[in-house]
């Protein structure tokens, strides 16, 4: 199916051929192909006339600007010419869009994509889709908080009617600016590659300098260190308040159960 601009261009060219075949005495023919005797057009790129738009359409369709009226004298020939030109332009647009899409996918395969809120990283074009899905599912609250509350562009103060309109405005008018909302961050593969093992150099000294002593690991927790919560009934030491409440509710302790809002006696070691 043709694009809307191609359909309008096709209708305009067919109407131009119809006007060209009209006698010179007809008013539509005079309006379309006549010029003013007095006056001149202003400078600084004035507004286009209908004849200027028609000339641009003829050039875009690959037709000759000087001989198109001769071809348009025959209605069937002109209709087939316009139809072939529209089909050729449509095929060229499809091939250009396919090539552009392939180049974009090939470019996306060279990058790593990272979540802006965590260390979730994936590679390639599919990786970008995975990261975007990860942002939507795992960071739903942050994504909703980052939604646009204003429809005014921060770069040119242009006010849009919808959020999609603002996104389209930023993509076309400010292509270098990041899109609104949370988006996957583009990283070079070298930035996310694991560190490589250094290769020993031939110029390295035979006896390297002694390294700093490694600090001893922290001692594991002992019952003496965990004596913050002690049972009132049996004297058992628990590691946390939740553990003390669970112990008092269990069958191992015959004492009265402690409620969550109650006061548990704590002893400082």
UniProtKB/TrEMBL annotation:
UniProt entry keywords in alphabetical sequence: Metal-binding, Repeat, Zinc, Zinc-finger
Keyword Metal-binding: yes
InterPro entries according to UniProt: Zinc_finger/UBP_domain (IPR050688), Znf_C2H2_type (IPR013087)
Stretches the record annotates as Disordered: 168-221, 249-269
GO biological process: regulation of gene expression
GO terms under cellular component: nucleus
Pro residues bias spans: 207-221
Top-level taxon of the source organism: Eukaryota
Alphabetized Gene3D superfamilies for the sequence: Classic Zinc Finger (3.30.160.60)
UniProt GO molecular function: zinc ion binding
Xref: SMART domains: ZnF_C2H2
Biased composition, class Low complexity, residue ranges: 189-206
C2H2-type domain span: 151-179
Name of this protein: Uncharacterized protein LOC103514725 isoform X1
Protein's organism: Diaphorina citri (Asian citrus psyllid)
């Amino acid at each position: 199916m043709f694009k809307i601009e191609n359909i309008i261009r096709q209708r305009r060219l067919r109407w131009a051929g119809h006007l060209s075949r009209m006698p010179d005495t007809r008013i539509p023919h005079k309006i379309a192909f006549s010029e003013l005797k007095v006056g001149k057009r202003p400078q600084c790129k004035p507004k286009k006339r209908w004849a200027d738009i028609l000339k641009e359409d003829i050039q875009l369709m690959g037709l000759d600007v000087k001989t198109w009226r001769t071809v348009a004298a025959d209605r069937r020939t002109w209709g087939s010419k316009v139809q072939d030109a529209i089909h050729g332009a449509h095929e060229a647009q499809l091939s250009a869009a396919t090539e552009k899409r392939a180049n974009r996918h090939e470019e996306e395969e060279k990058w790593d994509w990272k979540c802006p809120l965590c260390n979730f990283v994936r590679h390639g074009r599919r990786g970008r889709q995975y990261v975007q899905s990860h942002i939507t599912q795992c960071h739903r609250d942050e994504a909703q908080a980052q939604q646009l509350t204003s429809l005014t562009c921060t770069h040119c103060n242009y006010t849009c009617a919808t959020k999609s309109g603002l996104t389209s405005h930023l993509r076309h008018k400010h292509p270098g600016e990041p899109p609104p909302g949370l988006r996957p961050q583009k990283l070079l593969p070298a930035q996310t590659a694991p560190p490589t093992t250094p290769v020993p150099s031939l110029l390295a000294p035979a006896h390297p300098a002694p390294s700093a002593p490694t600090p001893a690991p922290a001692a594991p927790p002992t019952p003496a260190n965990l004596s913050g919560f002690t049972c009132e009934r049996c004297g058992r030491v628990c590691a946390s308040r939740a553990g003390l409440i669970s112990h008092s509710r269990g069958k191992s302790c015959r004492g009265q159960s402690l409620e969550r809002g109650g006061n548990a006696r704590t002893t400082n070691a």
